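stage 2 :: seqdesign
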């Protein structure tokens, strides 16, 4: 079973992944691309850029291709990074036809089709709101809005196979979140 945890920054993705792994030790955990790339020696600028999101998207796509069908939980998936790229470009008012993301859509569709469950954590009343100024709370909300649109209306046709992946929109307290995933296993 391949499970991806998705959402804008600081919604509890890593916490859900760690809680799930604790309850299901037969699963492995893949850190989000940003952390993996940093551990591999990539030095990102202090302020993230469109190029850094593209690099993370490419890493996420490779990771999904190279990871076998073992029991694995991914902290982030290509849809997250598509959301970040779209949010970044929307600040510059780049139309989707001109978006750099357009070149990656087929790869994203293929990668997403290899995931069994996407656990999407939208911003809600349980989401932490104590962000530091360098976390850009307005950008966080914009990414959340875009991800909600991508998951709820499939505005980029990323999910052509209607039953794969199963998309769970999860909210609520920390202890309830793992139970939501468990209900569909």
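stage 2 :: out
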């Amino acid at each position: 079973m391949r499970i991806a945890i998705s959402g804008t920054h600081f919604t509890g993705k890593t916490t859900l992944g760690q809680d799930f792994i604790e309850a299901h030790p037969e699963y492995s955990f893949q850190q989000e691309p940003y952390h993996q790339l940093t551990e591999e020696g990539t030095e990102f600028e202090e302020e993230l850029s469109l190029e850094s999101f593209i690099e993370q998207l490419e890493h996420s796509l490779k990771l999904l291709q190279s990871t076998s069908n073992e029991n694995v939980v991914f902290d982030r998936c290509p849809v997250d990074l598509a959301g970040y790229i779209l949010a970044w470009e929307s600040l510059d008012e780049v139309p989707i036809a001109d978006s750099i993301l357009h070149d990656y859509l087929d790869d994203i569709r293929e990668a997403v089709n290899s995931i069994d469950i996407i656990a999407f954590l939208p911003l809600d009343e349980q989401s932490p709101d104590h962000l530091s100024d360098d976390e850009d709370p307005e950008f966080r909300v914009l990414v959340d809005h875009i991800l909600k649109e991508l998951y709820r209306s499939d505005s980029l046709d990323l999910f052509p196979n209607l039953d794969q992946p199963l998309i769970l929109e999860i909210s609520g307290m920390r202890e309830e979140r793992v139970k939501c995933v468990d209900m569909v296993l």
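stage 3 :: structure notes
- Residues 2-182 form a domain with the Rossmann fold fold (CATH 3.40.50.300).
- The first helix runs from residue 13 to 23.
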